[in-house]
């Protein structure tokens, strides 16, 4: 068992950066991979190799340095020249029902609630005090995943016994639709809740025909909420569930929110931090509402806002943004999910760029501990459940094969009858799942998809290239590439057809997607030992990327790295090396020899092997692309 670094917990936001952490970023965080992450964004199973000086920096309580940077007043959080205002006695209990109405019933954000209370009720408190009080009252706007699973299980058990069920939790009522929706978006914990969650009220409704809508539910009468209680009847057609898909945010479209983000950047550049903060928060809240908390666009805005707070010397606010987005990743995907791991690395990168190398080290160390503990728990559970799953699988195998074939046939018919982009994307997602389990029925779906894409190559170039690339993967997995030689042999012709119909533009994301799909196609051809054709495809991708994006653009550099990784995995180093040399020259020109990507490429040429992260050096911001469009090798070399 690896031994984590012992350290006292650091309360982010309570102190200024400690002296001694202002050295260059590459010296502050001694190799991320050495602290629990591997080259694919996962957690390594080896001890964390850290330097004692980093540990000592965490343990020693030093006097914080003087503040630097422009003065910044955050509404409701920062006043005058002090870091945080002192609040007198506030009548929280007297305003409890009002706060419940604003925050829980009417759904105002914390910032909106604070503003209303300050301007209309002369109630001025910090965000930290609000959160502490709401936590004390056990108010929750969002239903935790493990609680949602518990509610669904309990309602199912009671329904089997002929009982109807109502739930009250976190200061409000929850419908079964809301519980099912949340449970479907979160992974059920291995050790599910067996006891009633704190603050949960489960009861049988007295008058199930008089159902209160969740949107209009009033305060509850329990340990966490004031007021009178009313009940919700849990059934398949309970009231109107909370809307999950939205077309606007407070009347503003996605374009309006993009304009707000641009305005925030302008305000920040023109040294108007209060207006910048307001615009950033509006853009972030809106993207969470319209997309999701873990959508790439949303997360990038969160990183940008955190960086903005740091530049205004508001470290606590920056940490709060990162902590919130981290919790949302873990709640939505789990800590061992690839998307969450990538986010954790990006948080460490940000901390390190802020000269907080020790904080980044402690953050990754803690993340490693949590992930390792959860993985071990899951492994034990998998062993226990293996027998049950095997029996269930054998019993369902015959029916599953028939139903899967029917399902794929239905999707093929839908795509043929109405080949919309959404239908085709859904079909490709389903196809990849069936490729993974070696289902031969997926071949017809992929062929039908490619045929429809060729009828509209200008719009469906990405999907058409992906369909052929996935078909090649399917044949390779089934070891029938020789029987389908023509499919591999004509891949270059297919590439030319779709490329000729593509409008290439360095500013559009579609050009990036066409490049990635073309890389997948080339990888399939190379794996089938059609070396000359694969080389031609990769050279065409090289030429097109240089023409469209520029020879030293970040996207072009990562295309070079991607091709190198494909050759590194499926062929030999001598064929991969020229691509890494080309990437190294471009990275050195674009970012200089001190950048992490440049140094990693240089080291790979010495060691004859490239990895994202190693003990010697690590990519910095340019790898993760906190802002802008980036190309990163995805499943090309990781499948």
From TrEMBL:
TM regions (residue ranges): none
Record's compositionally biased regions (Basic and acidic residues): 8-17
Gene3D superfamilies noted in UniProt: Tetratricopeptide repeat domain
Top-level division of the source organism's lineage: Eukaryota
The record ties this protein, via InterPro entries, to:
Clr5_dom, TPR-like_helical_dom_sf
* Renumbered residue ranges of the record's region Disordered: 1-25, 379-414
Q: Which residues form the Clr5 domain?
A: 90-141
A Pfam family assignment = Clr5
Protein name per Swiss-Prot or TrEMBL: Clr5 domain-containing protein
Q: Which organism is it from?
A: Lophiotrema nucula
Lineage of the source organism? Eukaryota, Fungi, Dikarya, Ascomycota, Pezizomycotina
């Amino acid at each position: 068992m690896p031994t984590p670094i012992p350290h006292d917990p650091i309360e982010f936001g309570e102190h200024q950066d400690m002296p001694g952490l202002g050295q260059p970023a590459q010296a502050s965080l001694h190799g991320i991979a050495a602290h629990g992450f591997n080259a694919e964004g996962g957690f390594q199973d080896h001890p964390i190799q850290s330097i004692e000086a980093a540990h000592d920096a965490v343990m020693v309580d030093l006097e914080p340095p003087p503040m630097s940077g422009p003065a910044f007043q955050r509404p409701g959080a920062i006043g005058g020249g002090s870091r945080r205002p002192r609040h007198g006695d506030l009548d929280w209990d007297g305003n409890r029902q009002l706060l419940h109405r604003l925050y829980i019933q009417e759904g105002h954000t914390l910032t909106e609630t604070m503003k209303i209370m300050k301007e209309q009720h002369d109630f001025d408190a910090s965000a930290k005090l609000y959160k502490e009080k709401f936590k004390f009252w056990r108010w929750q706007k969002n239903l935790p995943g493990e609680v949602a699973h518990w509610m669904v299980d309990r309602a199912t058990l009671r329904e089997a016994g002929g009982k109807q069920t109502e739930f009250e939790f976190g200061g409000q009522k929850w419908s079964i639709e809301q519980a099912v929706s949340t449970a479907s978006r979160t992974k059920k914990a291995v050790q599910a809740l067996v006891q009633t969650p704190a603050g949960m009220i489960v009861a049988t409704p007295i008058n199930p025909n008089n159902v209160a809508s969740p949107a209009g539910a009033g305060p509850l009468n329990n340990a966490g909420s004031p007021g009178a209680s009313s009940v919700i009847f849990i059934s398949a057609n309970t009231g109107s569930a909370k809307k999950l898909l939205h077309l606007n945010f407070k009347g503003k479209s996605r374009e309006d929110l993009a304009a707000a983000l641009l305005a925030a950047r302008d305000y920040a550049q023109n040294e108007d931090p209060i207006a910048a903060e307001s615009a950033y928060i509006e853009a972030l809240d809106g993207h969470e509402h319209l997309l999701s908390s873990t959508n790439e666009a949303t997360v990038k805005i969160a990183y940008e806002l955190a960086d903005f707070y740091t530049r205004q010397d508001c470290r606590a606010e920056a940490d709060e943004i990162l902590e919130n987005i981290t919790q949302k990743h873990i709640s939505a995907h789990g800590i061992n999910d690839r998307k969450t791991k990538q986010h954790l690395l990006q948080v460490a990168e940000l901390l390190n760029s802020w000269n907080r190398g020790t904080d980044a080290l402690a953050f990754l160390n803690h993340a490693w501990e949590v992930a390792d503990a959860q993985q071990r728990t899951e492994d034990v559970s998998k062993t226990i459940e293996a027998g049950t799953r095997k029996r269930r699988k054998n019993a369902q195998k015959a029916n599953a094969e028939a139903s899967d074939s029917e399902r794929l046939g239905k999707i093929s018919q839908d795509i043929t009858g109405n080949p919309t982009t959404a239908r085709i994307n859904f079909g490709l997602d389903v196809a990849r799942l069936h490729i993974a389990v070696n289902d031969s029925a997926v071949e017809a779906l992929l062929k039908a998809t490619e045929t429809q894409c060729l009828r509209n190559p200008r719009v469906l170039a990405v999907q058409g290239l992906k369909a052929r690339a996935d078909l090649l993967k399917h044949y390779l997995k089934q070891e029938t590439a020789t029987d389908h030689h023509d499919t591999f042999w004509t891949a270059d012709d297919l590439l030319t057809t779709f490329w000729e119909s593509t409008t290439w533009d360095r500013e559009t994301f579609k050009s990036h997607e066409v490049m990635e799909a073309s890389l997948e196609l080339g990888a399939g051809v190379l794996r089938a030992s059609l070396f000359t054709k694969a080389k031609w495809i990769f050279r065409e991708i090289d030429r097109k990327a240089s023409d469209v994006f520029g020879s030293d653009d970040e996207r072009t550099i990562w295309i070079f790295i991607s091709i190198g990784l494909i050759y590194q995995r499926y062929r030999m180093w001598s064929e991969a090396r020229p691509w890494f040399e080309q990437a190294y020259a471009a990275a050195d020109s674009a970012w200089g020899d001190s950048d992490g990507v440049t140094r990693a490429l240089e080291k790979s040429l010495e060691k004859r092997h490239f990895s994202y992260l190693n003990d010697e050096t690590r990519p910095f911001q340019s790898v993760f692309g906190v802002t802008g469009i980036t190309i990163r090798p995805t499943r090309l070399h990781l499948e």
